[in-house]
User: Which sequence fits this backbone?
């Protein structure tokens, strides 16, 4: 099992540019989560999917953020346009069933200058 | 809404000493609880979980945690720490709210090990 795979590991971009983060969950996992980690706010849940359907996006900061899951093996988190305050580590996680532990990827460190 | 408090931002212990990391939660019903560990540049790894049953839960790497409903606590313990335990530790509480799965993390406790 390769675990949750995120790409890229690091992303540096200029303010106003579009950023796309990618995630491949563990095969067979029904749930996929996107979290953001910052020193100030800790780990925040942005959105999660069940069977490719978004269930709760109440944590998405604003309309500049969007997430999709076109199939069971791939999800994207897009920021357009990006701003310096979006700089953070973004984690993708997946879980097998409802209320089972999350398996995290190694994260994408985003820096917006 | 549920919340998690980890009162200690940073703890330093000597190698071989015992460890207790505190976690307090707020939730109206019985939550499900987790402890995760994060090494620098890595994602979070599950140490242990509590859903129901025995309130003393054993995890990986020699860690254990005890659920105390009366104190709304789920403290993490290890009898003797190793230098490799230096990391950041997160407590998380989960609950089902209006059919949605909510998992809220504490702010984390950074553990430093003195040789």
Assistant:
């Amino acid at each position: 099992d390769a675990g949750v795979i995120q790409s890229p590991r690091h992303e540096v971009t200029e303010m106003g540019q579009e950023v796309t983060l990618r995630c491949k969950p563990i095969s067979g996992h029904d749930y996929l989560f996107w979290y953001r980690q910052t020193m100030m706010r800790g780990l925040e849940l942005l959105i999660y999917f069940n069977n490719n359907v978004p269930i709760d996006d109440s944590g998405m900061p604003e309309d500049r953020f969007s997430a999709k899951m076109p199939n069971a093996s791939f999800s994207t988190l897009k920021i357009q346009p990006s701003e310096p305050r979006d700089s953070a580590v973004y984690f993708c996680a997946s879980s097998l069933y409802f209320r089972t532990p999350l398996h995290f990827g190694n994260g994408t460190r985003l820096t917006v200058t | 809404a549920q919340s998690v408090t980890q009162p200690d931002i940073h703890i330093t212990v000597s190698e071989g000493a015992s460890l207790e990391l505190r976690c307090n939660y707020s939730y109206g019903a019985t939550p499900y609880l987790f402890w995760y560990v994060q090494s620098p540049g890595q994602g979070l790894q599950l140490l242990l979980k509590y859903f129901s049953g025995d309130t003393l839960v054993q995890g990986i790497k020699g860690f254990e945690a005890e659920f105390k409903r009366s104190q709304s606590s789920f403290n993490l313990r290890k009898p003797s720490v190793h230098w490799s335990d230096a990391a950041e530790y997160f407590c998380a509480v989960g609950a089902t709210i209006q059919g949605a799965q909510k998992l809220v993390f504490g702010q984390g406790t950074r553990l430093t090990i003195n040789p």
